[in-house]
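fyi for ur records
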Amino acid sequence: MSVFDLDTSVPAELGPLSWLLGVWEGSGVVHYTVGDEVREYEFGQRVSFSQDGLPYLNYNSYTWLLDESLTPLATETGYWRLSRNLGDGDPGPAMLPRVGVRPFATAESVETLRNDVGGFDIEVSLIHPGGVHELYLGRVKGPRIDLATDAVMRSATAKEYAAATRIYGLVEGALLWAWDIAALGQDLRTHASGRLTRVE
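which gave:
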């Protein structure tokens, strides 16, 4: 497996995820069945993946219904990173600065994090304003990402939401994704999918 190419302004640890960087826009479809009711509609979406010099991606998604008013639909924000143990060379917890040498500062050292199928294990933490926080575990291998929730936290006022899986892939320059959820008393099932193109 060859070492990946990386813009020198991006931390080496983001190499396996760097193809996500940028702003993406497009549309998608929600199709979710609750009991005998099928909830189906089209939406627009704008997604941003950015980095600020730390070893994770910042993520933000905003969606709106494709109706006459472009009614706001949902938003989520979070962080994507390679899954590895954090040590003294990493900042945190809270606002404590790192102590010592920053780990995995070169593409060669990041290569040592490859898993047994030739990809990289990742962690994704997403927060929804309706009182839901998802922790996904998964893997990135080339231009494909597979995620499944390891934990879902809900506030006492949140709607019922138990688990989810997500898939992302870069296909002919477009970012395609699919999201299955277990919510509102239903088992894990198809929820939404979209197709986005890079605009920035």
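The chain has one domain: 12-198. thats all i got for now
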